[in-house]
Design goal:
This protein is α/β, with parallel strands linked by helices and about 130 residues long. Helices cover about 45% and strands about 15% of the residues. The radius of gyration is 16 Å and the shape is elongated.
């Protein structure tokens, strides 16, 4: 099983294809070659062990948000807690026969742009 973060919108590439197209092509190729594989795409995660959300918070605390991080003004995220993501992975592992050969997406209920998430991180550390 592969768990793939959706944070591809956070980086910039000169590649002629979008990161999501490359991800989808790679995932479909993997599933066609490995019938027992399961792919779980996770939306941007927050929580104690979340790298990306912690990185954004650290940048806000330092007063330096790189331009590349704030470059996405229109993409909508549905943040998911690391606890819910862990539950999804545990469920998939417990039901391997039912999920093999499929792709899933784990997202939260609320939608936000990356700029809105950055402002939340800034407020959390009392910086703007």
């Amino acid at each position: 099983m592969a768990v793939c973060p959706i944070e591809h919108e956070l980086y910039w590439s000169e590649d002629k294809h979008t990161p999501f197209e490359l991800r989808d092509t790679a995932q479909m190729a993997a599933l066609s070659h490995f019938g027992n594989a399961t792919i779980l795409n996770a939306n941007i995660a927050f929580g104690k062990d979340s790298y990306v959300s912690h990185f954004i918070t650290q940048c806000a605390a330092a007063g330096k948000i790189p331009k590349a991080i704030g470059g996405s003004k229109g993409f909508q995220y549905k943040p998911v807690s690391v606890e819910d993501l862990a539950t999804a992975v545990q469920t998939a592992l417990a039901k391997t026969d039912q999920v093999k050969g499929k792709r899933f997406t784990v997202s939260g209920k609320h939608t936000a742009t990356l700029n809105e998430l950055l402002h939340l991180a800034e407020q959390y550390v009392n910086k703007e």
